[in-house]
Design a protein that fits this description.
heterodimer, A: about 475 residues, Beta-Lactamase, 4 domains, 12 helices, B: about 130 residues, alpha/beta, Rossmann fold
């Protein structure tokens, strides 16, 4: 075969491969395969210029028609083989891809199934735990419908789960406490409410800690309440507080009698006294007052610690509260040569507080100020708005002050500032911890600012 | 000591306190009669017609609130001052519903009890006018 013939073969082969590629391209695309191929072949074959070019090349290279035929047969054969090879390869690739996809899918399904089984097992475990804990557990959705309730809850509430699932928990339930279980919006930390139920004819006291359930976006989707039976604990508490009340009465009664007797004699209602008699009786009287103060403080504190103190809140004007507090100890301040002045911002809004308790706070703070302020000093009681939500009330003195390192210890129980200036400074070290309890019960805050020798300032906030 | 023509009934089951209070009031010129329980107090109110009554709240047999309720059945007018040992006594509220003129706390000075007595008497006099 001449060089020219080889060139022709290469051209024809090249055209065949190109044709094949076009075919594959049309195959991988989503066109109508058959129509697409035929059209390309037709176009290709129908291209006269190309046909003529090939033919003229062949004619110029091959002299006989026979040789020409053979050559074209050979070309067709090569093209055909190549096409077949490509097609087979492609379909193999496709079926391999398909197999991989199937395998992956099956694998994923297996994983999903295993996950499902794990979740189902976990769920069973969780349910078993919820089922067997002694605390009652009730979960409601955002509409207050019960979605979960364990046997302990059924027993504690005296209801059946069957009747309650999917229902409003408050349906057919006359106990208004249960309504409060749902309606009272708990804080983040969960608030405790006490419920009484008459399920089995005995009065039960339940404590419910309710918390909001939030989804990932922070939207409230329901609430979970944990109920515990605290009847026994409650009975013990009552016994304890009964005992405390009794002891307090027993302690106070003789003290009051002693104090009053001595007061009568000191007041010379029972006749004249010598100076020495008066002096000694004064000592007895002062110490009795101290003892009653101590007992009162201890009882007060035990009440606060037991959470027994309930605030009797009503709207009051803070200036009245301050003036009343000062009136109670004005004479003592005068006797010690200390001036008590007020600085009350005009047109302060009324605040809703337990006035007697706030008077207790102020009396305590002012008394402390008097104790630690030398003669000629001044105590300033100030009240002003802090922001839209709170009021600042402070008691500042010009006394001996408190060392900075001791400021944080002030509100601790039984803490007493080491140095004293006068002999009549005494206390139980309880006063300020009670003050703190009262302020915090009012949802306020208290702190002290001072430096040694610079006087002290106690400030507390009350919500407006 | 000026004599006052005012009769005060002191009712308290604690002997010491009753004695001290009676003594104090006498030293201030009042005529004092005393009872140690509610029943005695009712009898004395009926027989002696005191001008004003001090009534302890916590007493055995018949407590202050109960006694005041009984007194109000036959005498709506007589001023009664409650005596209580505690500032936060829950029973005070109970007694208040039957009409009391004031509360004197045992822990406070007698002088406070005295000024309360004077205020109540003054108001009562004005009311009668």
């Amino acid at each position: 075969m001449s060089e020219a013939a080889i060139l022709v073969v290469v051209i024809v082969l090249g055209s065949g491969v190109a044709l094949g590629l076009v075919y594959f391209a049309s195959l991988s695309g989503h066109t109508n395969l058959k129509g697409g191929k035929n059209k390309i072949v037709r176009d290709f074959a129908g291209s006269d210029t190309l046909k003529q070019a090939i033919a003229s090349q062949i004619v110029s290279a091959v002299d006989s028609e026979k040789a020409c035929l053979r050559l074209s047969e050979a070309v067709t054969d090569i093209v055909g083989k190549e096409l077949e090879k490509r097609l087979t390869q492609n379909s193999q690739e496709l079926s391999q891809k398909y197999e991989t996809i199937i395998k992956e899918k099956t694998h994923n399904e297996e994983i999903a199934w295993r996950k499902y089984q794990k979740v189902a097992e976990d769920k069973k475990e969780t349910e078993a735990v919820i089922h067997s804990i002694a605390e009652g557990l009730v979960v409601v959705d955002s509409h207050g419908k019960v979605i979960m309730m364990n046997p302990a809850a059924e027993k504690l509430l005296g209801v059946s789960k069957k009747d309650k699932l999917g229902q409003q928990i408050t349906d057919n339930m006359k106990d208004e406490q249960l309504v409060s279980l749902i309606r009272k919006h708990p804080g983040k930390e969960g608030r405790e409410i006490e419920l009484a139920t008459h399920a089995d004819e005995t009065k039960k006291t339940l404590r419910a800690s309710t918390a909001v359930i939030e989804n990932e976006e922070g939207k409230t989707v329901g609430m979970v309440s944990v109920l515990s039976d605290i009847t026994k604990q409650k009975e013990l508490d009552q016994m304890k507080s009964g005992f405390v009340a009794n002891v307090s009465h027993e302690l106070r009664t003789p003290l009051v009698a002693m104090e009053k007797s001595i007061a009568l004699i000191l007041n010379k209602d029972a006749g004249p006294l010598t100076q020495t008699q008066e002096q000694f009786l004064s000592i007895a009287h002062r110490n009795l007052e101290r003892l009653s103060g101590l007992i009162n403080d201890l009882l007060n504190l035990s009440k606060f610690e037991a959470g027994k103190v309930e605030l009797k809140k009503s709207p009051v004007a803070i200036d009245k509260v301050i003036i009343e507090s000062i009136e109670g100890i004005q004479n003592w301040a005068k006797a010690r040569g200390v001036l008590v002045i007020t600085k009350i911002e005009a047109s302060l809004p009324e605040i809703t507080v337990d006035a007697n308790r706030i008077i207790q706070v102020l009396t305590n703070l002012i008394s402390n100020a008097i104790k630690f302020t030398p003669q000629g000093g001044t105590i300033t009681v100030e009240a002003k708005l802090f922001d839209a939500q709170s009021m600042l009330i402070s008691v500042a003195d010009t006394g001996i002050g408190i060392a900075k390192e001791n400021l944080s210890k002030l509100f601790e129980k039984f803490y007493q500032v080491g140095e004293r200036v006068a002999t009549d400074i005494s206390g139980t070290g309880i006063g300020l911890s009670i003050v703190k309890e009262i302020v915090e019960l009012h949802r306020g805050r208290i702190w002290a600012e001072s430096e040694k020798g610079q006087g002290a300032k106690f400030t507390f906030t009350l919500p407006v | 000591m000026e004599e006052k023509n005012i009769k005060v009934l002191v009712t308290d089951d604690e002997d010491d306190f009753r004695l001290l209070m009676s003594f104090w009031l006498q030293s201030k010129g009042y005529q004092v009669i005393a009872a140690s329980n509610g029943e005695e107090a009712i009898k004395l109110i009926q027989s002696e017609s005191p001008d004003i009554v001090f009534m302890d709240l916590n007493m055995p047999v018949m407590d202050g609130a109960e006694t005041i309720k009984k007194v109000r059945e036959f005498n709506k007018d007589i001023p009664i001052i409650l005596i209580s040992a505690y500032l936060d006594d829950v029973k005070v509220k109970d007694a208040t519903s039957h009409g009391i003129a004031g509360v004197f706390f045992k822990g406070k000075d007698f002088s406070q009890g005295l000024s309360l007595l004077e205020t109540v008497l003054r108001k009562h006099k004005n009311l009668q006018k």
